[in-house]
Amino acid sequence: MTTRPQKHSLTLHGHRTSVSLEPEFWQAFNEIARARGMALNALAAEVDETRGMDRGLASAIRVYVLNHYRA
Questions:
Q1: What pLDDT, in 10s, does the model give residues 16-60?
Q2: Rounded to an integer, what distance in angstroms lies between the CA atom of residue 33 and that of residue 68?
Q3: In the structure, what pLDDT confidence band is assigned to residue 13 with cuts at 50, 70 and 90?
Q4: 3-25: buried (b, 16+ CB within 10 Å) or exposed (e) per residue?
């Protein structure tokens, strides 16, 4: 498995965007979405709504995953 970031397309509030994350973060983010019974786009939208303007979406997803597994 490569550890280089991989770009994935997401739809947030009807708008397409792309996010680059390492495969491990994509896998963990997908696992969290499945465990919560949510579509990946819905979870990404939730993270997007709660991130500060000083943090990019990719960074916000990484922090979300980290906090999830720390809890």
A1: 999 999 999 999 999 999 999 999 999 999 999 999 888 999 999
A2: 11
A3: confident
A4: eeeeeeebebeeeeeebebbeeb
Predicted confidence (pLDDT) at residue 3 exceeds the cutoff of 80: no
DSSP annotation of 18 reads E
Tokens of 29: 């983010």
Token pair recorded at residue 65 = 């995953």
How long a stretch of residues is the chain? 71
CB 27 within 8 A of CB 35: no
Taking alpha carbons only, the member of 31, 33, 52 closest to residue 41 is 33
Q: Half-sphere exposure of residue 4, counting CA atoms within 13 Å on the CB side?
A: 2
pTM for the model = 0.90
